[in-house]
Amino acid sequence: MSTPTGWRREGNLPAELTSFVGRTRLLANLKRHLAESRLVTVTGIGGVGKSRTVLRLAHQVRSQYPDGVWFADLARLQDAGMVKHTIASALGIADQSSRAESESLSEWVGDRDMLLIIDTCEHLVQGCAELVHELLEAAPNLKVLATSRQSLHLPYEQVVPVPPLLVPGDDPAESLFTNESVQLFALRAGAVVPDFQLDEDNITAVAELCRRLDGIPLAIELAAVRLRALSVEQILGLLADRFSLLAGASRTALPRHQTLRAAIGWSHELCEPAERLLWARLSVFAGDFELDAARFVCSDGRLPSEDITDLVTGLVEKSILLIRSNHAGVRYKLIDTLAEYGEEWLDSSTSSARPSR
Ligand SMILES: Nc1ncnc2c1ncn2[C@@H]1O[C@H](COP(=O)(O)OP(=O)(O)O)[C@@H](O)[C@H]1O
Ligand SMILES: [Mg+2]
């Protein structure tokens, strides 16, 4: 596999689209492990911040890798047989004609001094593990940083769990105002209500909300969106009712993955029926997409193509879709944990949820 002209030695790291909060100790730990191990796998539940933390780290350590830091996102990949191809594409060296892509891929990496990030491996653990092993054996200067809900089970793998953000009360010496969950809520709140400020009047409710959401960043982001129509107190009240109902009378707290599901479920219910349908249908996109593609793929008699723009805007406002604009135009991306939820919903609802054509 030859290096195509125009290959960029610096890598292909996506830009960070929103501000990053906290995680000082975790980032320092990850740097240390990355210096000592050739394979570091970052694990944790969906929405806890694996991808985001790794992206932050990647930007911080970028200058240490003369042959670049490379990011391959497997989130929406269904087929283990495509892992190699996806990684080769991320590296900008995909070769359509090559059948033995993995062989040439490791040959190509050779003695390049680079960091390869493989984001979201959990549904393809076996395929990823085999490829990573092969690459690490063949390429002595390669390092791999993976994210996955479960480890790759390789003997030399360093597994680093990502816990939720600290919530108020975790560190009794810390002020509520500087707690990282509270900071994240405040930043996202500021994007929804520009004059939002943490103050003595709302800090207790914000702190309690972050505790209820177990410090899970995705859940915090989804809750902050509700400020468009509700006060922090009101969000907290509705959420507390909802969660205690789910947890049952005898239990006060939900397990974390249920907290996230409940937070997503709440956002889902608050979407218009047409937004829900579009959310589900957008889950077929493997990566980011343009508005025209969404119109083409997702519209039918139930979702008229002229409504798609407004519905996409609605989903962006609810933090279901990420928006990414560059010189080539605007692209959208369904956050992977939310894509999964949409896909399940599509599977469980009647076939009429699928576009008819
Ligand atoms: N430390 C952080 N600061 C700011 N935003 C964060 C942080 N950690 C996670 N997020 C945001 O929370 C959401 C979920 O994080 P993500 O990394 O996608 O989770 P995971 O990969 O574990 O499923 C994303 O929108 C991400 O940008
Ligand atoms: Mg992720």
Automatic annotation (TrEMBL):
UniProt cross-references to Pfam families, sorted A to Z: nSTAND1 (PF20703)
Domain of life: Bacteria
InterPro entries per record: nSTAND1 (IPR049052), P-loop_NTPase (IPR027417)
Domain spans labelled Novel STAND NTPase: 18-150
Protein name stated in the entry: AAA family ATPase
